[in-house]
Structures are given as C-alpha cells and as structure tokens.
Write a structure and sequence with these properties.
The protein has helices at residues 16-27, 40-50, 64-78, 108-136, 157-177, 203-212, 221-232; strands at 7-10, 31-36, 54-58, 84-87, 139-146, 182-189, 243-246. The chain is α/β, with parallel strands linked by helices and 253 residues long.
C-alpha cells in the first residue's frame, strides 16, 4: 500500500521526534493521527499546520482502554481503519548524562516507568490496530529504539533496557503477524539534534558525537523520520523483524 493510502497513528506526536514523523507522513499524503498525552496545544498547532488529513487525539498509550478509544476515534474520523502505527511515545525522560541515575542509586520504579512506556504501550497499540490491519490485509508497525544497547556510551540503565525489550517484542510480533501481511520493524537512533528530550544535552556532547561519525554531524529528527517512512513504504514490503540504526554511522552493528 502506498503511503498516501495509509492511515497512520504516531504516538507522542505532539512534540519532538514524533512531530517530525507526523510531518513526514503528511508530506507524503498519508492520513495522520497526532496522538498526544499532555501536549494538547502543540498537537493542535501541528494539525493546523498539516491540514485536513491530520487530527489530534489524546490518549495515554500505557492505558489499554484509552488506546482502544484512540483507534476507534481515528477510524471514525477518517472513515478507514488504521493501517500504520509508529510507536514513538516516550515515558518521561531527559537525555542528560551528567544527571543520570547510576547503578548504585537507580530504582526499579525507573525501569518500570520505561518498560511501560516502551513495551506495554507497544503491546496496546499493536493489539488495537490488529483488527483493522487484518481487515485491510495490510499493516505496518514501526517502533522507535536506540543505539545505546549496542553502544552504551551513556548508561541510561532504565531507558536502554526498555528499548532492548521493545526490540525483542518487535521480532516476536514480526514472526507472529507476518502471515497477515503485517510487518514490524524498529528504527534506532542515537542522540538527535535536537528534540525536547535531548535539549538538556550539552553542546560539547553533540560535538563529540558528530566528530565520531563518518558524516561528521548529528542526525536530525527529520532524517530519522524519513527512515520510518521507508519501513511503511512498498519498498520495505519484504522487510520485517529488523532493527535499522540511523545515527550517521556511529554504531556499526
């Protein structure tokens, strides 16, 4: 299915990377659901920018009932089931290496928060999307990951563990849903310049990362978003269960 025929839910799309992903799909003609939890004003401003093929819908994606309502509202608004889900929403987190919780102080509650944001939310959105995807004979699920579990240059223990678990779920879902023509993949970035989550990162860290990449620059949210489009496009129709690292060549594995 071409992107301009797809109905796409982007979770956590009111700001940061999610808004860049929503803009990328809208640019290609997709119907876009800008999901948000708290960023109502930003989400509505983005929809006003994107036009009639976008709508803003509130839901906490860690709540199964709210997610079911989100997908029902999306289908009612566009008159078509959701075909594509981008699991981008991030549990509250700030990428500030100097302020990170270290091994001797981090709590299980921090892990629980990230696991709910990465794994529980992905399970909820995937399950809510399945009936419509199966009816359409087509589905694309793209999960947002991180290169930190290959290269833990900053040990964000809770965030990295949750994203690693989300990669495992990506691969088991891909194996389970492949017969339904539903692909499930992950796009993993490094630090992006700049999102709300990376705003606390000092300039010298961005400069160090840039100098370590073959491209000599830090990946932008817009560049990351274009890779998400690839997994949703017909060109990726035989790609599933994969994790593509998009970080300017910093991580080679």
């Amino acid at each position: 299915m071409q992107i301009d025929k797809q109905t796409v839910v982007v979770t956590g799309a009111g700001r940061g990377l999610g808004s860049a992903i929503a803009r990328a799909f809208a640019r290609e003609g997709a119907r876009v659901v800008v999901n948000y939890r708290n960023s109502r004003e930003a989400a509505e401003a983005l929809v006003a920018e994107l036009g009639d093929n976008a709508t803003a819908l509130q839901a906490d994606v860690t709540d199964a009932e709210q997610v079911a309502g989100l997908f029902a509202a999306a289908e009612k608004h566009f008159g078509a089931p959701v075909t594509t889900v981008v699991n981008n929403a991030l549990a509250d987190f700030s990428f500030n290496g100097d302020a990170r919780e270290k091994a001797d102080t981090i709590s299980w509650e921090a892990f629980d928060s990230q696991l709910r944001g990465s794994v529980k939310a992905t399970l909820h959105t995937s399950q809510a999307a399945l009936p419509g995807m199966r009816a359409a004979g087509f589905g694309r699920i793209v999960n947002v990951g991180t290169n930190l579990f290959q290269n833990p240059v900053v040990p964000y223990h809770d965030y990295t563990a949750a994203k690693a678990a989300a990669l495992s779920l990506t691969r088991t879902l891909a194996a389970d849903l492949g017969p339904d023509n539903i692909t499930v993949n992950m796009v993993s970035g490094g630090l992006l310049r700049t999102t709300d989550a990376s705003a606390a990162t000092p300039d010298e860290v961005f400069d160090l990362i840039a100098s370590s990449t073959p491209l000599q620059r830090v990946t932008t949210p817009e560049e990351f978003a274009d890779t998400v489009l690839f997994f949703a496009s017909p060109w990726a129709r035989s790609v599933t269960g994969q994790n593509l690292v998009v970080d300017g060549g910093l991580v080679k594995d």
